[in-house]
Amino acid sequence: MREWFLSSELIGLDGMANSSTGISQKARRNNWVKRKASVEGRAFEYHISNFSEKVIAQLKERYGETADVTPIKGNASSLVMINDIEMLPIPVYNVYAACGFGRTVDSEYQLRMEFLPSQRLKKFNLDVESTRIISCHGDSMEDTLSDGDEVLVDIREQEHPVKNGVYVIRIGQNVFIKRLKYNIIAESYDVISDNKSEYDPFTLTVNQLEDFAVIGKVVTTVMKAVF
Q: Are residues 126 and 154 both part of a single domain?
């Protein structure tokens, strides 16, 4: 699916300038992700992740589903240089994993791309295909994670039992971010909140284990709320 747009294709959209020069100036002010355009006579084209949801909606209306953002495979062509730093596009999903009593997810779709330094991903042995970004909801993982934090999730399949750590898990239709510790005696997982004064730990029952899945391991925060 298409992800890059020429300045001429952005002119006149609500929230955009009315000339190619104006688009270029806006791009420089906001440090947009860009690349050299393949169209003769055009300097740059701009990635859809630069734009607000309002602009993206207009692009979809104007150009149809070609404006959709799809995950980019982890190869050399996905690299983008920003201020001489190699950046990789990581999909950000609408999933808000509950750091509390659970949050039902009816559908999951991609919101945008977040460009992260490739060296940062390599530090955690991650690449584009193994990584997703989701948001936290609630206060049960304070002070480790706060409401609204975006976290980097390793979505590769984990060995059973998983090592002690913080994971995105699904119990039935509810998605949580919790600390897991394998309980050898119960042959199950203890599900632990870091905010122990407000949330008690619990051990998954046999019935809960049937509807239980580890979606991925929380590696680090991408954006952390500061209060």
A: yes
Q: Give the end of a domain, one of 70, 93, 113.
A: 70
Query: Hey, what are 146's tokens?
Result: 């706060």
**Residue 65 sits in the same domain as residue 82:** no
C-alpha to C-alpha distances, 108 to 91, 95, 96, 130, nearest whole angstrom: 12, 6, 10, 17
pTM of the model: 0.63
Together in a domain, 223 and 150: yes
Answer yes or no: do 79 and 136 share one domain: yes
> Domain holding 199: CATH number?
2.10.109.10
Instruction: Say if residues 181 and 164 touch (Cβ distance below 8 Å).
Output: yes
Q: Please give the tally of structural domains in the chain.
A: 2
For 61-108, the pLDDT digits (tens) are 887 754 444 433 333 345 666 666 788 888 887 776 666 555 555 556
Residues in the chain: 227
Place of tokens 């991408």: 222
Residue 184 phi/psi, 5° resolution? Answer: -65, -40
User: How many other CB atoms sit within 10 Å of the CB of residue 210?
Assistant: 10
My answer on whether 2 and 104 are in the same domain is no
pLDDT digits (tens, 9 = 90+) for 122-180: 889 998 888 899 888 888 998 899 888 999 999 998 888 999 999 999 888 888 999 99
